[in-house]
Amino acid sequence: MGDLRQSALVCLQLTDPLSKVEYTRTLYQSWLNGELTISNDELPVPDVAGYPEKPKLVAPKDLPRRRNSAKTGVATLIHAITHIEFNAINLAWDAVARFPNLPRQFYDDWARVASEEAEHFVLLREHLISLGYDYGDFPAHNGMWEMAQKTHHDPLIRMALVPRVLEARGLDVTPKMMDKLRGSGDFRAVEILEIILQEEIGHVAIGTRWFNYLCEQRSVDPLMTFKDLLDNYFDGRLRGPFHIEARKQAGFTDAELALIEGR
């Protein structure tokens, strides 16, 4: 039998997006079929995941401004979301490969996330092609992966800050993006984002579950730990407005919501 974490490492390092998607599909099906074991070895997980030559990665301030009225406005927005989903495949497999000695359910959860993120990428890329473009045609930024690098050393910090801050931000902004796309007449994009929003609530909830689990294992208070991490990694600041109902579904407590709304 193969090993899930070793295979996740292989997938993480693939650079071609379609190869990464196909490997993810095959790997997840093998996992569901009971064909893989889980090792507790420390694996040589690289700091940089496999990326294609394009899109060109630039600082967020150097990205072209997106306007739905412009010729490429919808396409650049769809491209940006496609890039986030590609990163999310890598982030899920990185969690599987990087962090040993966690319950089997941890790996089951993140393998499922990788599978769902791969399908999101496919839906968005197909739509982008229908608009006359492809993934890689516009520049993108690397903010999600930069935060992943800062949290390589500790699964508790990873769970707190990547799913519960960066990915949770997607819950906040997606309804407004859907309104913009609806206004521009791109109803297929709206359908895709509706699918993604519902599944991303589940992904953030998985981050919440394992953040709380690791806090309990270490006998630390989740609220104070989350507050301290926000202070240390984000200078205490988070951008609103917040999609409170979606965040509640993803496991945020009233105290956590009060904390982030107060910032």
Structure notes:
- With 263 residues, the chain is mainly α.
- The protein has a domain at 141-263.
- The chain has 10 helices and 2 strands.
- It has helices at 4-13, 17-32, 73-98, 104-130, 143-150, 155-183, 187-217, 222-234, 244-249, 254-261; strands spanning 2-3, 36-37.
- It has a two-stranded parallel sheet.
- The model has no long low-confidence stretch (mean pLDDT 93).
In percent terms, what proportion of residues is strand?
Answer: under 5%
**Structural class category:** mainly alpha
Helix percentage: 55-70%
User: Main β-sheet: number of strands, strand sense, barrel status?
Assistant: 2 strands, parallel
Order of the strands making up the biggest sheet: 1-2
What global shape is seen? globular
Order of helices and strands: EHHEHHHHHHHH
Counted by DSSP, the helix tally is 10
User: If you average the pLDDT, what whole number results?
Assistant: 93
How many β-strand runs?
A: 2
Backbone CA Rg: 18 Å
Spans with pLDDT under 50 lasting ≥5 residues?
Answer: none
Ends: how far apart?
Answer: 49 Å
Supply the key terms.
263 residues, mainly alpha, 10 helices, 2 strands
Concise summary:
Helix content is 66%, strand content 2%. It has 263 residues and is mainly α.
List the helices and strands and how they pair.
Blueprint: E1 2-3, H1 4-13, H2 17-32, E2 36-37, H3 73-98, H4 104-130, H5 143-150, H6 155-183, H7 187-217, H8 222-234, H9 244-249, H10 254-261
Parallel strand pairs: 1-2
Helix pairs in contact: 1-2, 1-3, 2-4, 3-4, 4-7, 5-6, 6-7
